[in-house]
Amino acid sequence: MTHDCIDVHTHIVPENFPAYKGKGRDVPWPSMAPAHACHRHVMISGKVYRTVADGSWSVPRRIEDMGAMRITRQAISPMPELLSYWLPLEDARVMCRYLNDQIAHMVGEAPARFIGLGAVPLQDVDAAIRELEYCKTLKFAGIEIASHVNGTSIGDARFEPFFAAAEKMGAAVFVHALRPAGQDRIVGAFPEQAVCFPGDIGLACASMITGGIASRHPQLRIAFSHGGGVMSILLARLVHAWNMFPKAKESLSESPAVTARRFYYDELVFEPRAVQYLVDIYGASQIVIGTDYPFALGDMHPVKTLELAGIHGETLVALSSTNAKRFLGL
Prior knowledge:
Elements: E1 6-12, E2 31-34, E3 39-44, E4 47-53, H1 59-69, E5 73-78, H2 89-109, E6 114-118, H3 125-137, E7 142-146, E8 148-149, E9 152-153, H4 160-169, E10 172-176, H5 192-195, H6 197-210, H7 213-216, E11 222-224, H8 231-244, H9 246-251, H10 256-260, E12 264-266, H11 272-282, E13 287-288, H12 302-308, H13 313-328
Parallel strand pairs: 1-5, 5-6, 6-7, 7-10, 10-11, 11-12, 12-13
Antiparallel strand pairs: 2-3, 3-4, 8-9
Helix pairs in contact: 3-4, 6-8
């Protein structure tokens, strides 16, 4: 493949975190501890949250891995568990600023290879807008947010001023599942990422439609991780409800399908037929590559997945490059 190949869904973890200097007590401030070769433990509240490889922070290692993945550029965003919505606001502001400066440093090491997606303390909309403004001064394409903020869906009216600001600034918004609903219902040894993330990102996506924020801000560029989760199956049901329930129709100026087809979705669904289904439901102009690099539940061969889905020619260029450039405002 000769054209640019852009991965919008990758994460960074800094090699170290600053020591906690806030005023809180028992604040779950992260730290790093040595692990086995080329790995470090992310420690939260004295426990290992996750063990991460050096691709999380090492620019040379990342670029080496990108070559094997046939990826030319990555949008880099924080590991979602670092978004810090649950921290006291002052602490969250410090963490988000540190993460954004770390991302800026990595982008600065290889500006032709990396695009920044920063973090904002979305538990306070005004503070989040100020940090988004800072991200724009760093020349980031936009920011990553989670599917909900401490249990409140991102489609809730309280967050509309933030999305209005993102729309006005031309900032891309990448939405990732985090601390998903339904964890208490998992049976067996499977992680929440496998079982609950698709439902959680689907709830976030639906909330942006059903609450009307996305229809009121049609220029907002927003993308959903993990193929939008259950949203592709849910969409026809939302359209049916919109047509059947007068109050639903009164509340939205356009069909849920119209809104959903303005959103972007990564193709991180692993099954080639499911990738083709995403293209059929949302359109070939709205699907982008997302790998979840450097984590184990990612897809380390995304171009092969697209090829197995029967995607070639102009459509392959769109899914691997053109759509991402439009989403990221490149």
